[in-house]
Structures are given as structure tokens and as C-alpha cells.
Amino acid sequence: MMASIPAYNDYAQSVLMPAMDQTALAEIKKLEAEGQHANPRYMELLIPNHYVQHLLRMPPDQWPDPVNRAFKHLNASIYVPMQGPSELGASGKLVDWDRTADLGKVAVPTLVVGAQHDTMDPKHMQMMAGKLANGRYLYCPNGSHMALYDDQKVYMEGLIQFIKDVDAGNF
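The structure assignment produced for this chain is given below.
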């Protein structure tokens, strides 16, 4: 997660939404404005136009079982008040949340993962790694929010190397 919800929202507005199919985006925004987040059409539009592009870059019928189980058991009574109902930005209680200034206080070795197609700005993720006292940045050029699945080789090699380096005291 990015250290700043305002930066997250800016990235969604300035990068992700302009790259979307604008007809689909207009319909998504209309449904959101009408409070129609539970309308099946909302997910019909979000899955191919947002989720498959930025959450997990594979056909939904090939999503791994843990992903499907997680979506099935998402606790909307917690998620929606915190994040807000929209999947294209945050509007809930966290809307002004920004911990960027606190990153330097984190002393434990920390791996920050950024991915080219993620909903999180990979440049922001790289910045975070640089501000952490013992941060390391792993970039997944073919990945999305779930790079552990859609850029698995890069993700796993980077994660394993990070763990080995932590174990060896290479920080």
C-alpha cells in the first residue's frame, strides 16, 4: 500500500482512469454517483476494465483459489467505511491518511514491492523504500497488485533474496 491515500487518489485520477476505456469509466462513475455499487453491472464493468488490468492480470476464470476465496469473504462492513465504496480511489475514513513523513522511523528491514500495472504507483513505492531506514525496492515489470501471481518469477526471486539478505544481516 502507498504511504499516502491522497497520493493514491492522485495516481488513480491522473494515470489509471485516463488509461481506462472511457465509455466503461463513464458508466462506472455514473453507477458510483447513484450509489449503485451493489448493482451487478458495476462489477461487470470493473472486472475487465480495472481488476484484470491492475489487480490480477489474468482472466478471472483462471484466478487462483486464494484470490477467489479472499474476494468471497471480503468484509464490506470494515472495508467500505475505511476505503469507501469505489474501487477507483479511496473516499472513506482513510481519505486523508498519509504516513509518508513517518517512513524514516521504520527501522526493520522492509521490502517494498512495486509493479508496473498495479493500482499503487510504482514510483511512490520506490520512494517509500528509499525513505525507510532499511528499505529495499522490488520492481515487478509485468505485475499488478497481485504480482505474486502475475509476475511470479520476479516477485518470488526478489522475496527470497530479501529473506536471505535479512537472515545474513546484509542491511
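Interim note for the steering committee: The longest strand covers residues 110-115. Strands lie at 110-115, 135-140.
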